[in-house]
């Protein structure tokens, strides 16, 4: 049974855990690489027959079993875990989710199967607006309880950090309600969380035909309040065909910059929307989706500090085109893969499925999908100095696998849960 003892986790006890006889530690790195790009994504460092020692919330050291006795950290150990046959992976970092939402939308799923497109469903008042209605009628406590279940589920599947967006409120009051729920999740769960304000996710029903007035409201009412209450770490806009234009995105990002909010935006999911260019113009930490990415967009990204992020779960679930991931990596770009966990286009936060999809649909190598779901998503959340690889001084967020022959088995054995034991902030939180 998977239970989180919140009080135990919040108060980090200075425990030292020794994990010994690890079959292989995956993605050992030093702290200096904040992202991995192009050819380097093929080159994954691992260490076989190894141990790892945590100290409080941090990784104190790791090394070959034969050197354990000489390790200066090998004293005052509070707990020893024998990991014979198991691999140790850094926790997944999921840099793009909408996991605070009310209810579910499996009824639209039928429409989708019958052939309606994402945009057609949205035009009928389904899609995001359907979730907005459900959220409006859900209390803050209930919304929190629903999201907490999802958080616990993704932790159990190996995720150690997650970005969560607002964007199903679409009114000042309901956007704040969502962001307060995210803040509560930050305070009460052991997973690292960043909040992204997505007021411009869709035009709400009350503003139908008055999109500009809604954008003005996002800029003049929502953004100041969100900033004043320090409820968001980032700002997002759904910059795409049928949603928000480049011009509107530009205005929102300009105002957000005044409040010090860096963009992480939805771009080029439905068309060559110009979203990548406007994101890069405002030094976005990431631009996400990118199904429609051509040579021009690749050139723009190559000259930027922005992490291109793809969401194969959404392309899979909506039966859409897959972005040119292979071409982008071969051009020298870094690439991140996230779940997009949301009730409409990707109702799963399982990052183990995302690594499998990366290999099957994007022709990425196992090494590349591992980087893409850890250090590169950590960069896309602004936390890669602390998370995303196994390095001395990094946060002790990692998981031990069930017995596994090789790390390539992770994407290969799709659909199975390979996680045996989860550690967050140096504490074992299941088993
Ligand atoms: O990332 N593309 C925009 N937003 C979400 C979908 C949200 C929904 O349909 O509820 C996405 O796919
Ligand atoms: Fe999304």
Principal-axes shape call: globular
Helix content: 25-40%
Give the termini separation. Answer: 8 Å
Which stretches are low in confidence, meaning pLDDT under 50 for 5 or more residues running?
Answer: none
Beta-strand share of residues: 15-25%
Q: How would you characterize the largest beta sheet?
A: 8 strands, mixed
Number of strands: 16
Gyration radius from CA atoms, angstroms: 21 Å
Annotation field: number of helices = 16
Return the average pLDDT rounded to an integer: 95
In this entry the ligands are: N-(iminomethyl)-L-glutamic acid, fe (iii) ion
Class per helix and strand makeup: alpha/beta
Supply the key terms:
binds fe (iii) ion, alpha/beta, 16 helices, eight-stranded mixed β-sheet, binds N-(iminomethyl)-L-glutamic acid
Task: Tell me what the structure shows.
The chain is of the alpha/beta class and 431 residues long. It contains 16 helices and 16 strands. The chain has helices spanning 6-10, 106-113, 118-123, 127-136, 140-156, 172-188, 211-228, 246-258, 275-281, 295-302, 312-318, 325-330, 351-362, 366-372, 375-379, 409-412; strands spanning 17-26, 46-55, 58-64, 79-82, 87-90, 92-94, 159-165, 192-200, 234-239, 262-267, 286-289, 307-310, 336-337, 398-401, 419-424, 427-428. The strands form two sheets. Strands 1, 2, 3, 4, 5, 14, 15 and 16 form an eight-stranded mixed β-sheet that branches. Helix 10 links the parallel strand 11 and strand 12 (307-310). Helix 6 (172-188) runs parallel beside helix 7 (211-228) and helix 13 (351-362) packs across helix 14 (366-372). It is globular. The protein starts with 5 loop residues before the first helix and ends with a strand. The model has no long low-confidence stretch (mean pLDDT 95). The structure holds N-(iminomethyl)-L-glutamic acid and fe (iii) ion. N-(iminomethyl)-L-glutamic acid is lined by residues 98, 127-128, 131, 238, 266, 269, 314, 340, 342-345.
